[in-house]
Amino acid sequence: MKSQVIAEAEKLVKSKYLEERTGHDWYHMNRVRNMALFLCEKEQLGDCFLVELMALLHDMRDTKLIKDQADLDFLKDWLIAQGLTEADTYQLIQDIDSISYSKGKHSHLSIEAAIVQDADRLDAIGAIGIARAFTYGSSISQMMYLPENEANIINESSAIQHFYDKLLLLKDSMNTNAAKELAEERHQFMLTFLQQFMKEWNQ
Ligand code: ADP
Ligand code: NI
Q1: Which of 117, 141, 191, 192 has the most CB atoms in a 10 Å sphere around its CB?
Q2: pLDDT (tens digit, 9 = 90+) per residue, 165-179?
Q3: Ligand 2: distance of its center to the CA of 122 in Å?
């Protein structure tokens, strides 16, 4: 039953997100799934089936991507239809809602949610994280960079500002040791990128 549920989840997420254009495409979900599975096996923590399923579905209730209440509710019915118990379904939905950056700060995380949160955060940093920040930024018509004085005048953020607001903080918010280790190199790469960006900007 488990491999069947995973195969169905893959199909569902691919059909919904294959052509997504804000950095939350199917490939993001697949990278998060692969990384979450790696962390689960390396740390020998949590239920790897739930981790894999949660990783594939983790952005299916993100209000950045989903505006319609019926689409937000859809996942619960879908999980029940796959044969998951009410209790597992309830736990998965609660976990998915607890892993996002803004909501995740205060809530208690299950082991599985902590692993998926690490995998999601690793995908927001490093080379891929840089690419995703500019992709997301342009999808909301954000400038790539605004010098501070001009940002103050027009009261707007920028993709570069997002590194200071969030991306450079992620390294210290990892839950597992394996993710902390992987975050180090990705963090350094972002610092190098920012340094080079400012060097070229001012040349
Ligand atoms: P979360 O639920 O923690 O926000 P997501 O999987 O939705 O995680 O990923 C958010 C992605 O969108 C990250 O790659 C992040 O850099 C990008 N992003 C979110 N807000 C902004 C922003 N204001 N400017 C640029 N990128 C952003
Ligand atoms: Ni995500």
Answers
A1: 117
A2: 999 999 999 999 999
A3: 10
